[in-house]
Amino acid sequence: MNSLIELIPELNQAFFETLLMVGIALAIAILLGLPLGILLYVTDQGLFLENKFIKRVVGIIINLIRSVPFIILLVFLLPLTQLLVNTTIGPLAASVSLSVAAIPYYARIVESSAREIDKGVIEAAVACGASPWLIIRSIILPEAKPGLITGLTITAISLIGYSAMAGTIGGGGIGDLAIRYGYYRYDNTVMFTTVILLIVIVQFVQYLGDFIAKTVNRR
């Protein structure tokens, strides 16, 4: 118990490091994964920007990244991480691999959410002469909003688990704390505490995501 009290400053730091890693990766997922997911949808057969080549190339790249286990992706991207942030340890370094994993993951969720939209609405907009950008901005994004938020919640929860994995190779955060103070020192109290902390974070993110998704759902 005393060891746990002494670790409170480290727990606080690990908590904020996890938030930093996941926050950066989520922001990158929205900036890049959202447009990619929309691109996958609107270039599909029968849609207003149908393009088999783009659809296939983007789909293959996304599937390739998603098929690589995160721990392998983490090691594989170490040279890129060193190039971008000039270090391979710490939360900023881990956020590079987390971002790369989050982009294709969220892109597929975005594509799936967009497929739930009634195509008749889109066809009517095309018939009225609406531009592709107008259709995306005024129809696809608003109609898919609940699914996009739910998908972002799922992505965030996956990233929390990935961030704990990143801690095994010095990525910082709660996973790093569990390895250094719990596993290496055989301190079960620290291990249980970090697990409970992760569960609390996941439950909070899930509740918040569900609440926002229900709030914006116009159906």
Summarize the structure.
With 219 residues, the protein is an all-alpha fold.
What does this structure look like?
- It is found in: Cell membrane.
- Belongs to the binding-protein-dependent transport system permease family. CysTW subfamily.
- It is a multi-pass membrane protein.
- Residues 15-209 form the ABC transmembrane type-1 domain.
- The protein is mainly alpha-helical.
- The chain has a single domain, classed as MetI-like fold (Orthogonal Bundle).
- The protein contains ten helices and no strands.
- It has helices at residues 2-6, 8-42, 52-67, 70-76, 78-85, 91-114, 119-127, 132-166, 173-183, 188-216.
- The longest helix has 35 residues, at 8-42.
- The radius of gyration is 20 Å and the shape is elongated.
Elements, N to C (H/E): HHHHHHHHHH
By oligomeric state, this entry counts as: single chain
What would the principal axes of the Cα set say about the shape?
elongated
Radius of gyration: 20 Å
Name the helicity range.
over 70%
Q: How many structural domains?
A: 1
